[in-house]
Specification:
Layout lengths: L1 H37 L37 E4 L5 E7 L4 H17 L3 E7 L9 H12 L4 H10 L1 H4 L5 H11 L4 H9 L1 H16 L7 E4 L2 E3 L6 H15 L8 H22 L1
């Protein structure tokens, strides 16, 4: 009888083992999925995969701004290369928020001109916006024919069109033709490494700054939250920096003040003697 009970128990245990194993596998899988969802938003090769596009842009001042690697060189910039205030934008051509702020940044450049240096950086959110990387490459390819800013404006202005098309690259070629580019060269450059390397280099700079959304904007290394990216908000930040960094007229030293006072007194005495 004891042997029969032991045999039955063994059979029961034997039949239970597969279910235990399956249960452990399910629990492990669930735990793995949760861990991945809570992990960082960048892939191992450094490509950005953040999904935010302006709505939650609440960046803190970048403590590592000065130590971040340089972006693509030469930079695409407007204004003066020697300006004391540098405004640096990181943007995604397929990002709706970037399309919204594009005319704002154009207005800022019109207002300040050579008083600032406005630098544009590519930062396509490749997971959220699968066509953004190709758009950035297209802009860089146009840049090889000195039409970067014209292509940038074309891409942002027509964002709603090309971002929903199946063959967006063909549309980019049409934009190149409209801008008077050598279309064959544009197509070759769009497929080449030089344009892609420029985009990747900008992305590495953005990754080092731990960007989580676009547009991201820095004024002399200080980041602005998305809600500040209005003409008034950006002007306030730029004006504050201009006031801070602009050279102030040096006040005369005590010796110079005394010398000036003595000279003034002597001049007054000479005039009085001359009138006698």
């Amino acid at each position: 009888m004891a042997n029969e009970k032991q045999t039955a128990a063994a059979e029961t245990n034997k039949n239970t083992v597969p279910f235990i194993i399956i249960g452990l596998i399910i629990l492990t899988t669930i735990a793995g999925i949760y861990w991945i969802s809570q992990s960082g938003e960048k892939t191992d090769n450094g490509n950005n995969t953040a999904a935010n596009s302006g709505a939650n842009s609440t960046q803190e001042p970048a403590n590592n701004y000065a130590n971040a690697p340089a972006g693509a060189l030469p930079e695409h910039f407007k204004g003066s290369e020697s300006a004391l205030v540098v405004v640096e934008e990181f943007a995604d051509y397929q990002c709706p928020a970037c399309g919204t702020t594009h005319p704002i940044f154009n207005e800022i450049n019109s207002i300040y001109g050579s008083k600032i240096k406005f630098v544009f950086r590519n930062y396509p959110l490749i997971q959220a916006h699968p066509k953004a990387y190709d758009a950035a490459v297209a802009a860089e390819a146009a840049g090889f024919q000195d039409k970067f800013w014209e292509m940038q404006n074309m891409l942002f202005s027509n964002q709603g069109k090309w971002s929903t098309e199946a063959d967006h690259r063909k549309t980019f070629e049409e934009y190149a033709k409209t801008l008077g580019l050598d279309v064959d060269k544009f197509k070759t450059d769009s497929l080449g490494l030089n344009a892609k390397n420029r985009v990747d280099t900008d992305m590495r700079r953005g990754n080092a700054l731990d960007l989580r959304s676009t547009p991201s904007l820095y004024i002399n290394g200080k980041s602005l939250v998305f809600e500040q990216m209005t003409v008034e908000g950006i002007k306030a930040a730029i004006d504050a920096e201009l006031a801070r960094v602009s050279p102030k007229a040096e006040e005369p030293s005590a010796d110079e003040s005394n010398a000036n006072a003595t000279e003034t007194n002597n001049t007054s005495e000479e005039k009085e003697n001359g009138n006698k």
